[in-house]
Amino acid sequence: SIAAYPMEAPASQALLDRALAVTPGGVNSPVRAFRAVGGTPRFMVSGHGPYLRDADGREYVDLVCSWGPMILGHAHPAVLEAVTTAAGRGFSFGTPSENEVALAEEIVARVEPVEQVRLVSSGTEATMSAIRLARGFTGRSVIVKFAGCYHGHVDSLLAAAGSGVATFALPDSAGVPKEMAAETIVLPYNDLAALEAAFAERGQEIAAVITEASPGNMGVVPPAPGFTEGLRRVTTEHGALLVSDEVMTGFRCSAAGWYGLEGPYAAGAPDLFTFGKVMGGGFPAAAFGGRADVMAMLAPLGPVYQAGTLSGNPVATAAGLATLQHCTPEVYDRLTTVADTLTAALGDELGKAGVPHVIQRAGSMFSVFFREGAVVNYDDAKDQHVPAFAAFFHSMLSQGVHLPPSAFEAWFLSAAHDDAAVDRVLAALPAAASEAAAA
Ligand code: PMP
């Protein structure tokens, strides 16, 4: 049966009122505030498998999955057991411990070009450290990024960023010194000519190009055939490093992330990779890694400093390891099947309702843009009818389906999305499509 939840959510609203008194905007990460879609953000109390339950006791099929980490669904029994066992042995030692070795081994075994990794606690730390390392290794300072790609809230990577920055239509962030922003060149995604021109002009100054392996932070915008290959070719020609940010795609698009689907590239592999989300299983664990000669520049071996009190935390690494160990071929097959079913039904219903739309996919990650025609870069992504998304979102929410509260985010699936959960989403689509048509 389809849920019919009212727009008002009194228990969540009461929590929001308390939160607003002590936290800016009432949230600890901006997109959670529902600013782009309006209404009361739902305060969740529990999650099991494909479902979340909010403070008002309403149940939702979760298509956010904590923005990616919960690939096995919420409170997966094997991960819960690993976490409980690890926590029973102590929470943090501030020394090396075995779980972090095992997690590093698992990552190195999966992603062929990654010879060594350093564990950190968030995707932001991973990209921040990777670009510092690239600068230290090359002795250069300029970083190239692509508009609409989000790499965390690193000062020099906040220029024309996706995710929350896109959701709120912010050009950039206040508080980033202009000297810092001047060290970042922002180029349109999927435009090799623009890349070649930038390297022709400033090639000797460029330390690295950082790219989302397959962007998901302006909605899903996969690389055009040959684009990533071109990034590798041009960076190699100019002695710059290529950093592939797989925080979102890593261990989600395949066992070896996006690289597992698209690599190896004829022009060679990326030098550095960043990971997060899935590899932490819902706990704060992330990583950067790659070529051993580059990684050897890191302290304590080399002059590039990087550290963390909680880096390699035994509970977080236990969660990440258990999650990766349960990411079997069957898990990836299930994600593909569910993505096939949902994208087909979404396209059908929006089509029937006469809503202009395009659905784009990278492995099991997908999103819908409310416009006609393929989206290849950030300008295209912004050129959509955002009010249609808001109407669609609220209709889905009232029918018990939890989507990302922004038109610029990927939808995430888990292997726990069984047929019953998928059927609930399917049942909600027709009404949501007609709301989008009316917006
Ligand atoms: N890189 C990418 C591609 C991401 O999607 C994100 C987060 N959505 C980050 C980096 C930053 O990760 P975190 O939020 O863990 O700092």
Task: Give a description of the structure.
Pathway: Porphyrin-containing compound metabolism; protoporphyrin-IX biosynthesis; 5-aminolevulinate from L-glutamyl-tRNA(Glu): step 2/2. Belongs to the class-III pyridoxal-phosphate-dependent aminotransferase family. HemL subfamily. One of its GO terms (molecular function) is pyridoxal phosphate binding. 38% of the residues lie in helices and 14% in strands. The longest helix has 24 residues, at 329-352. The protein folds into two domains: 45-75 and 329-370 and 380-404 and 417-438, Aspartate Aminotransferase, domain 1 (Alpha-Beta Complex); 77-325, Type I PLP-dependent aspartate aminotransferase-like (Major domain) (Aspartate Aminotransferase, domain 2, 3-Layer(aba) Sandwich), CATH 3.40.640.10. By secondary structure, the chain is an alpha/beta fold. Strands 4-10-9-8-7-5-6 form a seven-stranded mixed sheet, sandwiched between helices. Helix 14 crosses helix 15. The structure holds 4'-deoxy-4'-aminopyridoxal-5'-phosphate. 4'-deoxy-4'-aminopyridoxal-5'-phosphate (PMP) binds at residues 67, 122-124, 127, 150-152, 163, 212, 217, 245, 247-248, 276, 286.
SS summary, helix count: 15
- CATH homologous superfamily caption of the largest domain: Type I PLP-dependent aspartate aminotransferase-like (Major domain)
Overall spatial form:
globular
Secondary-structure element order, N to C: HEEEHHEHEHHEHEHEHEEHHHEEHHEH
Instruction: Compute the number of strand runs.
Output: 13
**Residue runs with pLDDT of under 50 for 5 or more positions:** none
Strand order of the largest sheet: 4-10-9-8-7-5-6
**Rounded average pLDDT:** 96
Radius of gyration: 21 Å
Give the class from helix and strand content and strand pairing.
Answer: alpha/beta
> What would you say the CATH architecture of the largest domain is?
3-Layer(aba) Sandwich
Helix content, binned percent: 25-40%
Query: What's the assembly state of these chains?
Result: single chain
What's the structural domain tally? 2
Strand content: 5-15%
Give the CATH class of the largest domain.
Alpha Beta
Small ligands present: 4'-deoxy-4'-aminopyridoxal-5'-phosphate
Sheet of most strands: 7 strands, mixed
